[in-house]
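User: I need a structural model of V/A-type H+-transporting ATPase subunit I from Pelagirhabdus alkalitolerans for a docking pre-check later this week. Nothing fancy, just the predicted C-alpha cells so I can convert them on my end. Input:
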Amino acid sequence: MAIAEMKKLTLISFHEKKDQLLQSIQALQRFEVVDLPSSDLGELDISPHEIDNLEDLIKKYETQIDHTQRALAFLQPHLPKESLIKKLQEAKQELSLEELEDEIQKFSPRDLVSFFLDKEHELEKIQEEQKRLYDEEAFLFNWKKLDFFPADLLKMEKVTGRVGTVPQHVQNEYINNLKNNEMLYVEEIYQNKDEHGVSLFFDRRDEEMVKQILNESHFDHLTETFKSKPSDELKAVQDRIAELKQQKKTIYQELNHMKDQEWQLMLTEEYYEAKLQRERSKLFLVDEKHLFVMEGWLETEKVPEIKDALKSIIDEDSYALTVEDVLEDDYDKVPVVLNNNDYVAPFETITSMYNLPKYNEIDPTPFLAPFYLVFFGMMAADLGYGLLLFVATLVSLKMFNFDPKMQKNMKFFHLLSYPTMIWGILYGTFFGAELPFVLLSTTDDVITILILSVVFGIVQIFFGLGLKAHLQLKYQNKAGAVSDGFGWIGIFTGLVILLLGNLILDSELMANIGAIIAVSSAVIIIIASTMGADNKALGFGLGFYNLYNITGYIGDIVSYTRLMALGVSSASIALAFNMIIGFIPTWGRFTVGILLFIALHAINIGLTMLSAYVHGARLIFVEFFGKFYEGGGKALAPLKASEKHIQLKNKQNIKRDGGI
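Assistant: Understood. Predicted C-alpha cells for V/A-type H+-transporting ATPase subunit I:
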C-alpha cells in the first residue's frame, strides 16, 4: 500500500516551553496539529481574555504580512528586470528557522515596511496632484491667449462683456450666430472638437437682448477666477508638473537600487508567516494551569526525528510524548500522505485532482500510472511531438530550479514523452510525416486501432473490478467481492470467449463455453447479492438490478474508442498541415514554409497534448475509478513555513534557551 503509515502523537509540556516546542515541530514540517476537543480533558484553566489576546496577536501578524506583501509588490516593479531563465535557474536560499531569525535581527522589519509604504503613499500623492495639474494645464492651455481678467468686464461703465464657450455645430451655427450679430464684438480665443472659447463685448444698454442671443447659442459662462493671466498660470502649472516628474524620477532611481531591501522584505514575509502559523496552531492546543496538551498526526518514519528534535531543545523531564497507532474510529480523520517511488510519484497529481484516498483505502496511483501512460501515448502518438516533449522537459529539469510542485509536474510530462514516442513509432508518424516503417497506419488500420482501444479498455475494467474484489475481501465482505468484482469478471470473460468463438475462431464449443461462463457468473451475482443481504427477498431483487448495470459497462467500453479517435485525428491534422505546406512553391518552403510549419504544428501539439491529458484523466476518473475507488481522504496539513521565498533547511537547529 502506497499510503504512508501514520501515528497519533500527544505532547504534554509546560507553558514556558510552548514556543520552543512549536518552533521545533515547525522545523520538522511534517507534523499536523489537530484541534484537541477540550471536553475530552475535563475542566480547563483558560480564560476568554487569553483567547482574545491570541486572536489579536494572530490579526497583528496577518496585518504585518499584508503590509509586507504590499511593500514587496510596490518595490519589485521598480527593480532591474531579470530574465525568466535566470529566475528559473536560481535556487531558493536555504535557511533554518534560527538562521531566519538571525537575518531578521540585522534590520528592523517594521521600519523597512513603513519606509516602502510611505514611499508608496508619497507616489500616490504625487500622481493625484499630477492628475489634477494635467486637467488644469489643459484648461489653461485653451485660455492662454486671454490677456485680461474676466472680472474686469464688470468694471467698465458703458461697455461690458462675457467670457465663455459655445458648443461646436456641424455648420458652425452657434458661433456664427454670435459673430454675425451687430450688437456683439466677438473675439475667438480657442477652438477644439467640442467647443469654441470666446470673449464678447457689447453695449450695456443691449444687455437683456444679448442674454437672449447667448441663450439661443448655448453660451456657457466661464466661472473660473484667474489669479493672474492664464499664460502666467499655465507656466506655473507646467513648472510644478516638471518638479513632480523630477520627484518621481528621484524616487524611482532610489527604488531601482534596493535589491537588498527586496530580499529583506522577503525574509520579513517568511518570518511573519512562520510566526503566524505557530500562533494559529495554539488555538488547537488545550491549556491547563501549568501545562498544555498538543495532539497531531505524523508519519511513522518521522517519529524518531521528532523525538530527537524534542530531546535536543528541552530536558526529557520537561515533556511527555505518547505515540499511538491509528484506530479504526480515526480513519476518517487521519490525514493521508502518498508514498510512491520516483516513477509513480508524478502521477499523484492525477489522484489528487480526483480525490485523495481514505486512510484505510488503497492508493490508486501505482495502478493508474501504467494505464495513463499507455492512454496518453496512444492519443498523442507522434515521434516528433514526443521527442520535443522529451527534450523540453529534460532540459528544464536539468537547467532550472523549480519548486517541488512544479518539479513533480515537469517529471510527469517527461514520463509522458516516452509513450508518445513509442506510439509514434508504432503509428509511423514524425510531425505528421510517415516513417519508412509503419506497424499501425492511422489511415489504413483504423479498425485495428479501434479494436486495440477497446481491448485496453476491457483490460482496465477487469483490473478495476479485480481491485474492487480485493477491497471487499479486505473488508471481510465476501459476498460483495463476488457480486461487485469476481462475478462481473466472469461475465465479461465469458462474453469475450463467446465473441472469439463466434466471430474469429468459428468454434461452436468455445462459444458455448463462453456462454456458460457468462450465464453462470450472472447467476452467481444474484446468489451472492441474496446471501449478502439481511433481507433475502430484497437481496434477490438487488441481484437482478445489479445485472442491469451491464448497459453501463457497455457504455464504458465504448468510451475507450476515444483512444483511437484522438490518435487518428491528431495524426490526420498533422498530415493536413504538411499537405498545406507542400502546396507552397519550393522557394517558399524554406522561408514562409518553415515559419508556417512551426506555427501549425505548435497549435496541433498544444491541442493534442491538452486533449490527451484531459481525456486520459477522464478515462481514469470515470471508467477506472468508478469500479473500485471512492476517495474522500484529506491531505496532511502540517505546521510548516510558507517557503515562498526561501527553502527551509531540513534539520533541527533550535536554541535550547528559546526561539523566534
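Before docking, keep this in mind: The first strand starts at residue 6 and ends at 14.
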